[in-house]
Amino acid sequence: MSKADKLKARAPRGFADRGPSELAATERMLAAIRESYELYGFEGVETPFVEYTDALGKFLPDQDRPNEGVFSFQDDDEQWLSLRYDLTAPLARYVAENFDALPKPYRSYRAGWVFRNEKPGPGRFRQFMQFDADTVGAASVAADAEICMMAADTLEKVGIKRGDYVIKVNNRKVLDGVLETIGLGGETQANQRLTVLRAIDKLDRLGPDGVRLLLGPGRKDESGDFTKGAGLGPDAIDRVLSFVDARGATFADTIANLRKVVAGSARGEEGANELAEIGTLVAASRYEDRVIIDPSVVRGLEYYTGPVYEAELTFTVTDEDGRPVRFGSVGGGGRYDGLVGRFRSEPVPATGFSIGVSRLFSALRMVKSPIVSGQEQPGPVVVLVMDKDQIAAYQRMVSTLRQAGIRAELYLGSSGMKAQMKYADKRQSPCVIIQGSNERERGEVEIKDLIEGAKAADAIASNAEWKSARPAQFSAAEAEIVEAVREVLARHFS
Length: 494
Fold this sequence. Notes:
The chain has two domains: 15-49 and 84-373, 2-Layer Sandwich (BirA Bifunctional Protein, domain 2), CATH 3.30.930; 381-492, Rossmann fold (3-Layer(aba) Sandwich). By secondary structure, the protein is α+β, with helices and mostly antiparallel strands. The protein contains 18 helices and 18 strands. The two termini are 50 Å apart. An eight-stranded mixed β-sheet has the order 1-5-6-13-12-11-7-10. It has a five-stranded mixed β-sheet with strand order 15-14-16-17-18. Helix 1 (20-39) runs antiparallel to helix 4 (142-158), helix 6 runs antiparallel to helix 7 and helix 9 packs antiparallel against helix 10 (266-284). The longest helix is centred in the first third of the chain and has 20 residues, at 20-39. It is found in: Cytoplasm.
């Protein structure tokens, strides 16, 4: 190919590559989350990346345009398929498909990639990982209270200190009551109601003035893109914003404020009663300092039917302009009693919580949690190739180390010793094995401790002194190669 015809190597916008250190740190974080979920009795299940688009149905971002917000395509049977938008809708399909075989309530967790066909931006990706836990088949708000407490325990398990986070709880029934009072209670207003929900969901990011625009005519963002608003009148906007601002100093104060806002709406009063019950359960388990009512939490998806919750980190970070801002949400969820019932003749209650893995990972790095900033696994021991006609002998050394449980590799390039040493440095190898003809005749190997050698190099002034000192290099019998390498590893790694 000519230079002009060569492909440009680039990742698609909104998608990211991940290196070995990030993968290892993420796995440690996922293991801690999994341990927390399992402590509460949840068990793992896995669903595919692709679902039939109609299984996601009206819970897609835009029900009239199935490829808006999700990645969709047709198979050879002309069936519409979509990459999963979240892990909740696939769970609903799985439970409905296996309903008779599963214990009820059914408690499960899932970790996996989800996909959003949306405009990418700073911190916003088209592919990202979530880690969910859900209880299906329990109508009691005790299930919601339990998940809120589990969310708090999970954040502490991964290294977020108490006081640096809060679990905020609200109830969509209360908001439904407010919307009824402003004329948005009917099925024909479903799209307008969803626009209101998404506007309120942006309160932390846009503030009251930005939300007011989204509740009214619409808002133009910094890039010039215009988001159409809900089209509410001034009185209706004031009513919605008064609901959002109903939080009091205590659980009881907030409940009292909400009862005033939804007075006259049976559904709104039912939601307030459920929040009061959650408050009682949370206090009984001594989580009242970590789980609070916040009416601004609504969650942007249509399928929530009752309590909704959000895990928010309260410490501040510095934004791109150097201004301090709160880190914000790293997860959320709520009750979705209608989702499984779409596939069955009877209603099936359900509630769940989802952690945004990438966002939580960023937060853990900021607070220097040992989960993600702890000691990395050492790179492999590299056996250098000094004599190309002795590859079998070098490969035997590598196999001996691997059989002893030591990460090891044979240098498979074609370069000389200097380049091989540079290669081992890039691989973050703790040491290299060197055997030329002289060492082979003596039945020995030279082992060079690269970590100790790097330290010694700082103290050696000249190249001649370096060569004569050969810092951190020693001889060992080839038969004792495992013990010698373990001695090097023990110096630097627990």
